[in-house]
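Lay summary

Proteins are chains of building blocks that fold into shapes. Our project writes down both the chain and a compact code for its shape. Here are two examples, one after the other.
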Amino acid sequence: KVKEGYNQNMKTNKFLTYSYDTVMIGIGGLLAAVGINGFLIPCKFFDGGVTGLSMLGASLSTVPLYAFILIVNIPFLAVGWKRFGHQFIIKCLLSIVYFSLLVKFIHLPMLAHDKILCAVFGGILLGAGIGFAVNGGSVLDGTEIAAIMLCKKFGVTIGSVILAFNVVIFSFVALAHGYEIALYSVLTYIFASKSANFLIHGLEDFIGVSVVSKHSDKIRKALIDELGVGATVYDGRTGLENIKQEILFCVITRYDVQRVKTMISEIDEKAFLIMHPVDNVQGGLVKTKLRKKRF
């Protein structure tokens, strides 16, 4: 009975996961298609990445945009087949097919006549669509898949690869359609990337804090009691004197950075602090007790 109950829970969790992913990808594709057809295409603006490349190709040929989106993404997905696994790539392919069909069949009037509004809201909707799709475990644009493969091969950062790719795209946009369209397209891309990052990473930015201090026990208690933050204690050694030294690690939000600095300084003004941004925080006390303390 215990085993049957466990299997039933596993099936339920899988169903809920698949349902959540489907809803996220469905909303994402719809928002992205509305952003393109309602704001960007009427103003002849472009995005970055594979979507921007597809839009540029469609503007210079008789091939429709929806076909370009599918055709251009396929090589990027093929490159990532071994690296990311067939299940993820097939899921991405189905998402891109869905997105391209929405671009084909959703017909909208021009939703804004001001160019800045078109660039801003077109970018926000497109970025939101990408963000929803990523939260659903998929992508609508194969740029990052190729970027991950290239950074592994050539030893460069993902951001550098994407930046170089987009510089090339917007340069061709400037040559084909003029610098003004290219500048509006850069504005579109900025808002799209910000919108996508907001939906993927959330409103709160999390900061990892490492503390080295002779008063580590007092600092640990203060972090837990005053801020409600969980702290992990590592056993370390000092480099110069080679003596035992506890190292504290905790995760806070950016809103609490100054509070943590002040609190630690009051306990030990000579404490050594290292702070760095962290992503994908899950579990622990940072999202439970921390919010209860604050609100």
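And here is the second example, written the same way.
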Amino acid sequence: QYSYQHNNYPTVSTTAPDYVSAYNTTAPDAFPNPAGLPPYLPVYGFTYYATPFGQGNNQEDTTNQQITGNAQKIWGEHTLKFGFNYFHAHAFIGNLSRTLNFGLTPTQNLESPANTGDGMATFLLGLPTGATRLLGPGLITLNGNMYGAYAQDNWKLSRKLTIGYGIRYDFRGNLTSPNATLGSFNMQTGGWWLDGPVEIPGAVFQGPNTHKGIYNPSYDLFSPHASLAYVLRPGTVIRSGFGIYYDLYAVWEQTTQGPRVTWPISQFQETPNLNSVFPTVGIDQPFVGLPNSVYN
């Protein structure tokens, strides 16, 4: 049996009044946009206020293909079942996040700041107190394969008692990128695991120095199971069972979330506290003095 599933549901949510764009918060210097994507505003945060506007940009284009085969053989009191499956995943995913926050500090009473200040007033003055952005694309193409096989037997020991037992084995390869180098911090050496070359001039860390996908695949994903069914009386059956199961797909995708937003692909950047003493940073340049590229 062959199955094919393609999902493409990018989501761009926005409530962006014109007066917000007048502050030039979509300027490339403040919030650079990944190539090929339209400009979008950061999510605005106001202390003690609900977020009234901002934009989110999530890209998810996935293609899953699966081949499965199953067979059954009745042999005396035994019902034997065997099967296999092959699963291929292709995904173009990313979550582009940027924020611009307005706290109380710039509008507090300097002599007695307790219980003073207003986040909306701070915004109207154009004095952000913090911001975050993603340097680099934040979008990545991933491919991966999974394989599985199982065998099981339902053995009818008597008219009333049936036992079942079996085992399944799965192998989940790494999700790898055909056009990007995945990186992850090496806690043992203080360096970086890199599964491909780093095309950044002067970069201290170079690759590849590990296999594609970085993480070591698991070779011990055995899933035994056993069950029992006993007919106590007509219309009443007692059942019990035990099994080990693995959620392979969800864990698969989660393991890539760190490398996806990690150097050398991209990197989250957060400002220190802004305008905490004097009004020195305007709304159009919250990242002044910080690198504008993941290559810096």
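What can we say about the second shape? The helical segments are 18-21, 119-124, 248-254, 257-260.
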